[in-house]
Structure formats: structure tokens, C-alpha cells
Design a protein that fits this description.
The structure holds two protein chains of two kinds.
Chain A: E1 3-14, E2 17-28, E3 32-36, H1 43-51, E4 58-63, E5 70-73, H2 87-92, H3 96-99, H4 107-119, H5 135-149, E6 153-157, H6 165-180, E7 184-188, H7 192-198, E8 201-206, E9 208-214, H8 215-218, H9 221-230, H10 244-248
Parallel strand pairs in A: 3-7, 3-8, 5-6, 6-7
Antiparallel strand pairs in A: 1-2, 1-4, 8-9
Chain B: H1 2-11, H2 13-38, H3 42-63, H4 67-91, H5 96-118, H6 124-129, H7 137-166, H8 168-174, H9 178-200, H10 202-216, H11 223-248, H12 252-270, H13 276-280
Helix pairs in contact in B: 1-2, 2-7, 2-9, 2-10, 2-11, 3-4, 3-5, 3-9, 3-10, 4-5, 4-9, 7-8, 7-9, 9-10, 10-11, 10-12, 11-12
The chains are: A alpha/beta, B mainly alpha.
InterPro entries (chain A): AAA+_ATPase (IPR003593), ABC_transporter-like_ATP-bd (IPR003439), ABC_transporter-like_CS (IPR017871), AztA-like (IPR047748), Metal_Ion_Import_ABC (IPR050153), P-loop_NTPase (IPR027417)
Pfam families (chain A): ABC_tran
Organism (chain A): Ancylobacter vacuolatus
Chain lengths: 249, 288
């Protein structure tokens, strides 16, 4: 299978300060890839770059899936929980790609929405205002929306943080199912046990790639210590980064 | 009863015109106000009204009490501020409320400067506080056109507007419709304020948007119903305000907004969704 993504000397950052520095690598179609690393390692930044929310400072991301085939669940979804809208309408937003600005929602779409709600265990919650959902129920609803987006590449930023074991079990089952359907899933995670159990491949990031490959070979104590060491603080007076050729020499 | 409610409109042409004017304003202002409130732009309307005021005043100074000049002046000033603030907010790290504050203050200062240079501000109060009892055909047509255009535009842009309010990050990830939708919305706000200022004055025009929306929030948790309730409150405030103004001889613009304010106060007290009284009534909690 081909690649869905290729990073070529990719540097992403804010105010010229790199958060992801000179990253190279490929993500194969159908990969189930975990991105691990300390806080501030650039994990979320990398997902933002892939999602197209952030423009690279240098280098590029070669995407072999059209932008509309990418579904992105940010770390703190910006959902306004006080907005007077119910679970059904929130989840049905996932049909945007099909329905767009003006398209109607037909009977098949309704069946899809009901199916997605059932898949995340939210049957009977259709008419509940989103403000009344618990944190776990909200995440289930957002997963139902992802389900409807029917994307080839899914980007999940810490999707299981602050969730109870039951919810994590249900949602990881969905991730497995997506991957089984041939979709590529890239998830930022901190729970190494979960990563080892579910994700065959891992990228350990500390601004630069510490290791990228089979999870068992990446998540070694040596690599993890290296990642912590490399992830030093942002330097206000950092000099401009030289040309890559000079750096590699 | 007939004398109280129907006769003023049946007997006087100017009251019938005012009635048409406030009903049209209410229909447009209701949904706009709801969206402004839900997008946390409740005070942005006020800022925009301040931005429009100098434009209208300049139009007034240039051409007198001329509908066209004042409308164009208001629209130009309003659009300049709305688009400028919107563009700065989207292109830089500055939040929209701060950008809006900066732009409207510049516009306001510029307006005051221009007005003071000309030195004639006799009828200016007239402009600032509106003349709902003296709407001529052209002004009525303008107000009704703005309301109609607002409803059509909202119908077309409703989905991205709601989506951007609920989850802007998601809309950004699936579509580029966010920024144009927001600009269309700002344009609609400006147009409705310009329509409103002919009847209620630039400052009070915001009242017919925000008060019904804020009141409606105490009655429903559902968006479509909220829009309906807001339109209902806006229109009935208009009608009741005109009647109060007619029977007691107080100025009609403030009367209309005060009636809407009364509706808001009642909603805060008695509204079933988070109102004060239902909250303090001794009610046993539910089983699940």
C-alpha cells in the first residue's frame, strides 16, 4: 500500500520557534500510528500541521489524501457546550462532506446518524442538549461525529484523556474497527500501556523524531529518557536555524 | 379594548407606518440577535452601533435629513469597522472584541471630529434617537427590504453560521466557509442596525436585537424555538411600545425598547430555563 502522508524536512512552530523540527518520514495507508512524547514535544502541533490548521515554517507535508478525507479531533474540541443544540444535531455535523452548505439529510443519512449514535452507546440521547452531557458522553458524541465523517485519515489528539475505563474500551474498539476498515489512524497518546496494546507503530517525538517504528522497539526506557532530555524549554533568544545541509554535516 | 389596541392604528396613517416598520425590524432583528448572543457578540452590536453613528451623522451633515445620504454613511462606516475588525481578528492573534473596540473608537472619534467641524447639530438628536412615528415610504421600503434580505441570507447561511458558533474548529477542519460566513453575518448586523436607526436611532436599534434574544434564552433550550420566541418578543415589544407611546405621549423609540426590557425582566424572573423563580421554588429532585 502507498503512503497517505510524507513529512519532508518538516518544521512547524509558532512565532518562528520550532515545535516540530526537521521531521522526515512516511505514514503508510492503513497505519495505526501512535504519537508519544513529553509535554511540549510538538505532538499536537504535528497533528495541526497534518490537518492543515497550521502552515509549515519550512519543509512540507505531502498529503496523498484530499483534505476532505481527513477527520481531525483536536485535544480540546472547541465545542460551545452552552449552545442550544441537541446531540443529534451535533453528531449530524459529521455529514458535512455529504450534505455541505445546503444539502438535505435523507432517510439513509438518518439511519447513518442513528447507527453512529448506537455505535458509541448514545442511543436515547438524541434530544439531549449538549450542555447536559458528561465529559465521557461528549467524547462519545464527538466519536459518533467522526464515524459519520467517513474519512480515510483520522487524527485524534489525546482522545482518551480524562475518560473512565468503560468509555476508553468502547472508543478504542471504534479505533480498531476504523483501522480494520483500512483507514489510517494517527493518535496522540500518553498511556504507554494503551499504545502497546493497540498501536502497532509509534512515533516518539521530542520536537525531532527520537524514534519511529514498531511500538515495542520505540518505547524503550532509553528512548523515553532521550526524549525527555531533548525536550528542553523554548529559548527566547534562539539563533536562526541554519540550512539543513550544514546541519546534517 | 378597541380604543386601546386597535384604534390608534386604524385612525392614524403614521401609526400604521410605524407598525409596519417595527414588525419588519422585529422579524429581522430577532434571529440576528439570537446569533449575536450565541456567538458571544452581545456587546459587539453596541460597538457596531457606535461605529455607524458617525457615518450617519456625516451623511446628515452633508445632505441634511436625507435617507440616502444617512443610510450610505451608516453602511460605509459600519462595514468599514466590521470588515476591518473581522480582518484584523482573523489575520492576527488579536481577538475580535479587542479589534472591534479599537475600530469603533477610531470611527467614533472621527465622527465626532467631523461633526464638530461643521458645528450644526440641532437636528442631530433626531438622528441619534430615531423617528419611528415619521417613517416615509422610502424609509419603510428600506427597512422592509433589509428585513427580507436578512431572512433570505440567514436561510442560506444558517448551517455554517450555527456550526461556526457551536464548534468553529470543526468547521475549519471540514470547510473554508467559516470566514465568509462570519463576514456575511457582520454585514447583516450592520444592515439591520442601519435599518433600525431610522426608526429607533443608532443606539437603541441594538435593543430590539439583544433584549428579545436575551429574554428568549430563559424560555427554551432549542435553537429554532429560541429564534421564534425572539421574533415574537421583538414584534410584540414594537407593537406594545407604540401603543404605550401613543397613549402616554412618551417618545416611541425608548418606549419600544423599554417594553422589550420589561419582557427581559419578566423572563429573568419567571423563565422556566434557568429563571430566578423556578430556581428558588422548592422542588424535589428527580430520581434519575
Amino acid at each position: 500500500m502507498g503512503n497517505v502522508l510524507a513529512f519532508r524536512n518538516l518544521t512547524l512552530g509558532y512565532d518562528r520557534h520550532p515545535a516540530v523540527h526537521h521531521l522526515d518520514g512516511d505514514v503508510a495507508e492503513g497505519d495505526l500510528l501512535a504519537i508519544c512524547g513529553p509535554n511540549g514535544a510538538g505532538k499536537s502541533t504535528l497533528l495541526k500541521g497534518i490537518a492543515g490548521v497550521l502552515t509549515p515554517l519550512t519543509g512540507r507535508i505531502e498529503g496523498h489524501v484530499p483534505a476532505r478525507e481527513i477527520a481531525y479531533l483536536p485535544q480540546a474540541a472547541e465545542v460551545d457546550r452552552s449552545f442550544p443544540i441537541d446531540v443529534y444535531d451535533l453528531v449530524s455535523m459529521g455529514l458535512w462532506r455529504r450534505a455541505g452548505l445546503f444539502g438535505g439529510i435523507n432517510r439513509a443519512d438518518r439511519a447513518r446518524i442513528e447507527h453512529a449514535l448506537a455505535a458509541v452507546g448514545l442511543e436515547g440521547f438524541e434530544a439531549r442538549p449538549i450542555g447536559t452531557l458528561s465529559g465521557g458522553q461528549m467524547q462519545r458524541a464527538l466519536f459518533a461525529r467522526l464515524l459519520l465523517q467517513d474519512a480515510r485519515l483520522l487524527l485524534l489528539d489525546e482522545p482518551f484523556t480524562a475518560l473512565d475505563a468503560g468509555t476508553i474500551t468502547d472508543l478504542t474498539a471504534l479505533v480498531k474497527r476504523w483501522n480494520g476498515e483500512g483507514r489510517t489512524v494517527i493518535a496522540v497518546l500518553h498511556d504507554f500501556e494503551l499504545v502497546r496494546g493497540l498501536f502497532p507503530r509509534t512515533l516518539l517525538l521530542a520536537r525531532e523524531a527520537v524514534a519511529w517504528g514498531a511500538t515495542g522497539e520505540v518505547l524503550t526506557s532509553h528512548n523515553l529518557a532521550e526524549a525527555r532530555r531533548m525536550c528542553e524549554a523554548w529559548d527566547e533568544d534562539a539563533p536562526a536555524c541554519g540550512p539543513v545541509s550544514g546541519r546534517a554535516a | 379594548m378597541y380604543d386601546l389596541l386597535i384604534a390608534p392604528f386604524a385612525e392614524f396613517d403614521f401609526m400604521r407606518r410605524a407598525l409596519v416598520g417595527v414588525l419588519a425590524l422585529g422579524v429581522g432583528a430577532g434571529p440576528i440577535g439570537v446569533l449575536m448572543m450565541l456567538r458571544r457578540m452581545s456587546l459587539a452590536g453596541d460597538a457596531m452601533a457606535h461605529a455607524i453613528l458617525p457615518g450617519a451623522a456625516v451623511g446628515f451633515l452633508a445632505a441634511g435629513l436625507n435617507l440616502f445620504a444617512m443610510t450610505v454613511g451608516g453602511l460605509v462606516a459600519g462595514f468599514a469597522v466590521a470588515l476591518g475588525a473581522g480582518a484584523v481578528a482573523r489575520a492576527t492573534q488579536m481577538k475580535e472584541d479587542a479589534a472591534l473596540a479599537a475600530f469603533y473608537l477610531i470611527s467614533l472619534a472621527l465622527g465626532v471630529l467631523l461633526v464638530s467641524l461643521r458645528g450644526s447639530n440641532v437636528d442631530l438628536l433626531h438622528v441619534l434617537f430615531g423617528t419611528v412615528l415619521a417613517l416615509d415610504d422610502a424609509t419603510l421600503l428600506l427597512i422592509v427590504s433589509i428585513s427580507s434580505l436578512t431572512l433570505v441570507a440567514l436561510a442560506l447561511a444558517w448551517r455554517p453560521l450555527v456550526l461556526e458558533s457551536v464548534d468553529p474548529g470543526f468547521l475549519r477542519s471540514v470547510s473554508r466557509a467559516g470566514a465568509p460566513t462570519h463576514l456575511i453575518f457582520l454585514a447583516l448586523v450592520v444592515m439591520n442596525l442601519v435599518g433600525g436607526f431610522h426608526a429607533l436611532g443608532t443606539l437603541l436599534a441594538v435593543g430590539l436585537m439583544m433584549l428579545p434574544a436575551a429574554a428568549g434564552r430563559f424560555w427554551t433550550r432549542e435553537l429554532t424555538t429560541l429564534v421564534g420566541v425572539s421574533v415574537l418578543i421583538a414584534c410584540s415589544s414594537g407593537v406594545l411600545g407604540l401603543l404605550v407611546s401613543y397613549h402616554s405621549g412618551v417618545p416611541s423609540g425608548p418606549a419600544i425598547i423599554l417594553v422589550a426590557g420589561g419582557a427581559y425582566a419578566l423572563s429573568v424572573l419567571f423563565g422556566p430555563v434557568g429563571g430566578l423563580l423556578p430556581r428558588f421554588l422548592p422542588q424535589r429532585h428527580l430520581e434519575a
